[in-house]
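G.,

No rush on this.
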Amino acid sequence: MREPASEPAAGQRIRALVRRNCLGVIGAGVLLAELAAALLAPALAPYPPLDQDTARRLQPPLAVAAGGGRYALGTDQLGRDVLSRILFGARISLLIGFSAVAIAVPLGVAVGLIASYHGRLMDDVVMRVADVQLAFPFILLAVTVVAVLGPSVGHLIVVLGIAGWVPYARLARSEVLTLKRREFVEAARALGAGDTRIMARHVLPNVLTPVVVVGTFALANTILVESSLSFLGLGVQPPDPTWGGMLSDSREYVTAAWWLWVFPGGAILTTVLATNFVGDWLRDVLDPRGTW
């Protein structure tokens, strides 16, 4: 008689994972919904995000519009629809966040691999450069560079991407220093594999697991930094909508028009929380010591 499999079936494993970390599943669903809303913003937005109507300024949520519709989230100080601006602002904020992480991860991993696998001198030089960059607060470094280059979406992506390489380089370096003396690496070298092949086939796949988790948490931090720069006037410039820019515009209406800061602030809060939940979920999934 055939013995039952000791490992649960794939469906059971997925259900067990969902039960153990339902917040991660919820976070992934929220992020997917936000991405879909950002991509479909032209179709979902009830009004053009840049259209102004000062006669309808500071209308509260659910106020009746001139054409018979409603401003679901109200209007701002220039009569622009808040919901439409949040939807289009999601496109910019998420674009900057994902693009910056997409630049920082491969850059940091490549630097970490090269530094740790090609001698002590290279390792010392790269790590001292990383220490110098870490001596500057990240937000201060971003503010300084953006102020010099000028605020724009492209500059923000490049600055946040290049400035974010250090955590991935240090993480990749520490992993490689541990892995390159493991038995499977020594066996590959004994079989005649070169350094490039060993790094690509044996070291890099093991490095990517913690890097993916760290990159997920970094996405939330990048969105916060972009919002902070936009709030300070160093991010995407008006009239293009961003969540941080909307918060900046609402400073003079904190008590008179609460919806101007509650809804964009809620969008930032929801995105950051969802991203952190996904990061916790990925850590549980990818941790080889996990028992799920």
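When you get to it, here's the other one too:
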Amino acid sequence: MTLREKIHWHYKNTPWFRRLVRRFKDQTLSGLARFGLALIRALPFDVAMRLAPRAGALIYRCMPELRELADRHLQIAFGTDFPRAERERIARESLVNAARMMVEIAHMDWLRPRLDEYVTLVGTEVVEEFRRRGSGAIVVTGHFGNWEIMAAYFARQGFDIAAVARRFYVDRINQMLMDFRTANGVEVILRDDTRNSARQLLSILKRGGILAMIVDQDTHAQSLSIPFFGRPARTPVAPVALALRRNLPLTAAFIERLPEGGHRITVDPLFDLPRSGDAMQDLRSGLEIMSRRIEEQVRRCPEQWMWWHKRWEHPPVAHLDLDGKFQYTERQSASPPGATERDIDEAGGRSAGT
């Protein structure tokens, strides 16, 4: 047994050693994060933004596993015939976007009062429709552009907004993220906080607020396998399930980084969700509409999406996902057996962490 194998064995089988490793990882990663943010804050915003492309390119060069993962996912999405040089450019620019995002997060205290100038909004009529209805709304998005800026922008516009998020695996960094979002007026609903998430989720909707949900990741939430770039991917059912069951408006919003600087937020018209009376088929059809819209946005600006998440690599989770409700064909179409609206309502709650 090699030294690495021995360490791995002790990590798996020795509780005190596992706690020690986790504590060390927590302190080390959170310390590096704080140091990095402090270093960025020490620079003027414009200078830090000019240096961000170099930082992103350096990360691309120094992290081969991340680079190879992004390349593999780009081949899944666009095919193996997609030029290698273009795949490399997109993967590198994706990391550059992440570096710029870190600069904006580090300088958020300076940037917050300037958001009205830094961000342009397209789709104001939809936003005003939310205000007029006052019934609560669900907005889905993806890890695109700087999604933290988008949430902060809507909070600054006076919207009561809550974001469903998963707990980051490093406790101190998780707390840093929660503190950052709270400081920007965004309530955080942790998906795995089963004691409080249901109450928080229903509260934001009853107050007529916006429930924001990022739906382009494979997370431990109740999902359905929905085509994404032509390949089945676990897709959280919560936003569509809640919208159908509670008759809530549902739409997508995306933030794009502009070449000249700043961002543009685009809020789509409300999704026209199917209401055939077949609850499960309506759920699946609604998820297909949502997933296609996410895919369209990624195709529009692929260099602003996060390509290193394992979007396609996990099968349905037994006793959690709803794939068993459908009899799939080879093309992954569904001919569902009977299902009740209660199935859908419970799916919405469980997949949102309730």
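The chain has two domains: 3-109, 113-309+320-351. DSSP finds 14 helices and nine strands in the chain.

Enjoy the weekend,
O.
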